[in-house]
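QA checklist item 7 of 12: single-chain prediction sanity check.
[x] sequence parsed
[x] length recorded as 349
[x] structure emitted
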Amino acid sequence: MANLYIPWIFLVQTLTLFAKCRGKVPAVIVFGDSSVDSGNNNFIPTIARSNFQPYGQDFPGGQPTGRFCNGRIPSDLISDGLGLKPTIPAYLDPIYNISDFATGVCFASAGTGYDNTTSDVARVIPLWKEVEYYEEYQKKLKAYLGNKKAKKLLSDALYLISIGTNDFLENYYTLPDRQSQFTVKQYENFLINLAADFVKKLYALGARRMSLAGLPPMGCLPLERTTNIMGLHACVEERNNVALEFNRKLKGMVAKLNKQLPGLEAVYGDVYYIFLQIITRPSVFGLEEARVGCCGTGRFEMSFLCNPHNPFTCQDANKYVFWDAFHPSEKTNQIISDNALKTYLAKFL
């Protein structure tokens, strides 16, 4: 008989957790790239879009939204896990207004980076412009809630920052300019300084609670494995090592700023190791395929190459670690987000 009470106890614990979350985190505010872009690129002239099928095939309603996924992305899932809204709207989407943005808003742009030259590659929104949109949002929020309530919300909100992969894969390793100016270690340091400046700007604007996600094992993305012909399509360890080195520097920078800036509660978001576990042991997580993505052949397709005319898209994305050649499936996003809430985001619960 005692076992009958277990589901009820679990339900009460879950509801209690959500109630606490609602009180402690009033909003989720998102900056970054395609890992967290919920559709801002739909409204700018760029090829870096995903507002067409089969993107969004598993999103509520089955509609493409501009998320680079078959369903929801980590920022959506974290918001949901915090007891807030199940999806975070894109700031540039005209169907939403300040009442929609009061508990969550996304300024992220697919294809952008810490480095302004990265955003130039696909003509997307640079990080400095994301900050300008945030300042505009602040003014609207103060007009909507009043100055005191808005400042409190902005101070207590959780700021999710996920960016940096494009700086290496779309910029440094692809184009000659940055390679001619920096060694890879120097470029890492250059990006870390840009990241620190970004945090300081948000801090000056009233943000206090931030999560800066590190880089994933970028050498294991299907696109990287496809081009690793001499390595028999294994993960490119050199790029994974760069990600690890950058992540160590980012973690150190976060610790340093926490000491320098009074009241700052920044955390380093370690996504590398959980992601690598999923890739190397997919069956442990209920997944089957980690070498290629679901969309198309999964080897190189993303954005417009992942479209309804490609006959090879898989039927069940829940079996795949990756949705396209660059981005995780919703199931992978859920695992990574759940891990974040249990580890480095736990202090905000």
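[x] summary fact logged: Confidence is low (pLDDT under 50) at residues 1-22.
[ ] second reviewer sign-off
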